[in-house]
Each structure stands twice: as structure tokens, then as C-alpha cells.
Write a structure and sequence with these properties.
three-stranded antiparallel sheet, alpha+beta, about 190 residues, about 35% helix, 6 helices, flat, single chain
Length: about 190
């Protein structure tokens, strides 16, 4: 992870451009003699796990936009899901990371540090339902003065007013049959 301090603006930019540039795709060649439901070979499974682990670092540190994709591909190396048809998805994740190499996290001053009561926390979460229900959350620290503007859709929390403090994407541990159920479970889990 590389930090780029800006002493004038009192902000920090954190990126992993160098690390992402070093990531390698799986050597994948489509094979006509293999059915999509065939299990991955031992080598394919080993490399898929390696890619999943390598991508989790930027997903957790500086690249929240790939957090869900990373969570989904991590689930593809299990006993039942490690099949030949899923091998290209690992390379797709690497390509997605490399497509936008300049994505970074910016940590800027928010409000007056001597007055912590002037700060607010804004959280957004979303979930999907089905057999592999997923939930995600992102939390911003914002000046208390813009809370009403955010609530009434006048400004987005990720603009220059807020700082992304936390994000996560994970599989919901229970199967939910409706969007409302998934959203409720995710909301309770994220509190």
C-alpha cells in the first residue's frame, strides 16, 4: 500500500497501484473436451485460491468497489462450486482491478478535530436474496452540518464532505426468500 501525504491540504491518498499491476491472471485456455460442470483440476483450484487471497488485500484496504466481487469469487473455490465453468471469473476479477488502477482512498480532514461532537456517522447497506445471499455496508464520517443534506438527497456522503471509514461485503449466513428478509438480516448484522 502506498501513502501519498498532501501536507498543504492535510489529506492522505492511499493506493495499491503497484501491487495491482503485479497481479497475474490464471493461465486459462478453453478446453473443448471439458464440461462446464467438471471439477477444477488441483492446479486450477490452487491458483484460484491464490488469486482470491491476493485480491482480498486491495478489497479490504483501498478498493471497496471490488469487495462484493471478491466475496463472490471466494465462494467459488468450495467443494461444490470449484468447477471448470467458474475458472474465467477469477481472471475477470483481476482484469476489473487493473481496469481502474488509479482508484484510491482519500483521507481528508472532516470538520474541526477539536470538536468531535460536530461529526456524524452515515452508513449505507444493501443486500441480495437467494441461496447465496450477500450483504454489504459502507460507513462514512461526515460533518454534522451536512447530515440533513444527505438525508434529503442534496449531497452524496462520498463527495468532498465525507471520509470512507469502513466497508465490508459478506455472505449472509441464513437463506432468505425475499429482499425484505435479506435487507433486515443485513441491517441487524451490520449494527
Amino acid at each position: 500500500k502506498k501513502m501519498h501525504p498532501d501536507r498543504k491540504g492535510f489529506s492522505i491518498k492511499a493506493d495499491q497501484k503497484f501491487y495491482v499491476d503485479m497481479l497475474q491472471e490464471l493461465p486459462f485456455k478453453e478446453q473443448a473436451d471439458r464440461a462446464p460442470s467438471d471439477p477444477m483440476t488441483k492446479d486450477e483450484k490452487k491458483m484460484a485460491k491464490s488469486i482470491t487471497g491476493a485480491v482480498q488485500w486491495p478489497a479490504n484496504m483501498t478498493r471497496p468497489e471490488i469487495s462484493c466481487d471478491c466475496s463472490e469469487t471466494a465462494a467459488l473455490v468450495g467443494e461444490k462450486t470449484a468447477i471448470y465453468e467458474n475458472v474465467p471469473r477469477f481472471n475477470k476479477l483481476i482484469r476489473k482491478l487493473k481496469q481502474h488502477p488509479d482508484v484510491a482512498i482519500y483521507v481528508r480532514p472532516v470538520g474541526d478535530a477539536s470538536k468531535p461532537m460536530d461529526l456524524g456517522i452515515y452508513a449505507m447497506q444493501d443486500a441480495s436474496h437467494g441461496i447465496r445471499s450477500r450483504a454489504g455496508i459502507i460507513i462514512f464520517i461526515i460533518p454534522a452540518t451536512v447530515v440533513n443534506d444527505i438525508v434529503y438527497d442534496k449531497v452524496a456522503p462520498w463527495t468532498h464532505f465525507g471520509v470512507c471509514a469502513y466497508w465490508r461485503s459478506k455472505t449472509i449466513q441464513r437463506v432468505s426468500k425475499s429482499t425484505f428478509s435479506s435487507e433486515t438480516i443485513a441491517c441487524v448484522d451490520n449494527m
